[in-house]
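Lab manual, section 2.4: Encoding a predicted structure.

Procedure: take the sequence of the chain (641 residues), apply the prediction step described in section 2.3, and record the output as structure tokens. A sample record is shown.
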Amino acid sequence: MSSRVLKKLGLQGEKDITFLPEDGSDAEGDLSHSSGARKKQLNLNRYDVLNEQSHSESEVKEDDDHETTSSLTNNDLGQVETKEISRKKKKKKKRKAHRVPANARSSEDNAEDEVERSVREVNEMLGEIEPSFSDPKVVVCRSKDILSIEQRNLNPNNELKRIFGSKIVQQTEMKKRGRVRGHMKTTWFVTPKNNWPPIGKPGIEMKLVSSSNGINVYQYIHHPQYQQVQMKFLDAVDSGNPDNIVKIIDNHPYHVDALLQLSEFCRLSEDFSMSSEFLERALFILESFFHPSFASTSASSRLEYDLQENRALFIALFKHLTLVGQRACYRTALELSKFLLSLDPVNDPLAITLSVDFYAIRAQQYSWFLSAADQWTVTRNINQLPNFSYGTAIAHFLLTGGKDVEKANECLQRALILFPGVLFPLLEKCGIQPDSKVMGHSFFNQQTTSTSLKQLEALYVTRCHHIWRDPDLLAWLESNAHAVLGRVDEEDSEVGDLRSKVETWYKAATPRNILRHLILSDLKEVPINLLDCHGPLYSFDPLPPPGGTTIYHRPNRPTLNMENANAFSAFFRSLMPNYDINEPAGQAIARDVELGTNVTELTQSVTSFLGALRDYLSDFHSQIDIDIGLDTDDDTEVESG
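Recorded output:
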């Protein structure tokens, strides 16, 4: 309590403060001398101080300083040694020399500084000064700002609470969790379930590799015991028997790649709840061993995708945000996408930029998306992608509520000229029949010969056609389609220039990161040419980088020529977790015969595996009780409490 308040209570002054001599002499005389005055003053109501008008922090601090200085000049200081007095006087003089006038300190709490106010008024009249991109430090800063996120937006449960209410979500979570446990730590990405086993020491950790210019590079490390389990897992994948993978999870419940593989099995069987749980457990263990300095919100942490130990976090995050987006938690999916991109923003190994536009528009983050598009157009030519070309037009349209559409029209017409192959499939997905003028014109009927462009256009239509079902957007699309045809008929020079640019952009084959995106997205409407996928197609690590670094080496084996392979057998082999386009020829031919003669046996095997997996999970809770040493009576008490 400050001395000013003490004075109000009658506890400040010469008769209320007694200094004990340093020599330990008796002070009863001083105490008895002041007892009468103190009793009289204590009759005041101490709570009257609460009714006084509150002062600013600077006034309180100054008042305390002033009264402390006054009290130190009282005669009671004679009981203190001369050396101590001189030291305090020096401090008092120094404090007075640096003191700001009381009226200036008080106004600091209640009004803007004159200089700051003047600068603000000038900026309002002339506009804010934008930093130049010519400075590389500014580019790094702007990139970090674009990818910066808030920690609370990383967990989908927080968004579900905003949508449906916290009580409903909490009740649902309690039903899922069952009995209350207290051994699970809180994480950013997922809410761990109380029936999950304790983490223990799985044998992984993250270390800081380097730090430069505010960017920290990290790497996951697999300890020898984890490496042994990983080799067993790879053998289980090669065996083609899912039961072997379940055995690994039974003995090592937090083996990341095994969890990712089981999640994929459940997804293929459309058991999305179980698939999500395996993914969440994989993310939980990866996050639990983040380096203490690893920052997920400031976009300053990096992981190299070339290192096999790091790739599990990329894959788990991609699959997790996909499932989160399917639950309509678009803001969370957007924040997870930003975090995933921040891990390797230069290479973008999973081409997450192909889905950022969808989540940003669905989450109504139009301003952020337009800022990102402007910045990435300068640094990575993002406007050459169909999703960003159409996405920026939609963002401009929705940002103004369809009122100021000049910029939106410009962007949409550019997108229609660059990627005319989007229009008819998009209208078909929306259930709209184009008019005769659009249908009969050759411009929107032309077919591209670029495989990569076909894939990107099909990907955009499949993922984003839900956005275009808005009647206002469809009417706006129709008017701009007519405007484009008018420019084509008038032989607008810009149309020819843009068309020639597209042919230059999409001459090469589909980049490897885009192929990974297509494989992980697994959209049936988007074609994937297996001949373009040179490398293993494991769902836990699709198309690893050719020059990547790994500590797990598998023996080289003769491979099968896919050009002569049976398409039917190749399709079924691609569904298996051990599918590899470079599979040994003899083993592949044997599978061709087996799959061609008895496809039903494969279906029964997968069904049997999923049934066994569900039984395993249902018995998992009792296994935890045994592992952590809880008896039945203790569990009953926890449930009743």
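Check your result against the sample. DSSP finds 30 helices and five strands in the chain.
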